[in-house]
Amino acid sequence: MTESAARRRPSLNARNQTGADGVDHARIQAAVREILLAVGEDPDREGLQETPARVARMYAELFAGLHRDPRELLRKKFTQKYDEMVLVKDIRFESCCEHHLLPFLGKAHIAYLPNGRIVGLSKLARVVEVLARRPQVQERMTEELADLLMDELGARGVGVILEASHTCMTIRGIRKADSICTTSAMRGAFRDNQSTRSELMALVYGGR
Question: For the whole model, what pTM was predicted?
Answer without folding.
Answer: 0.88
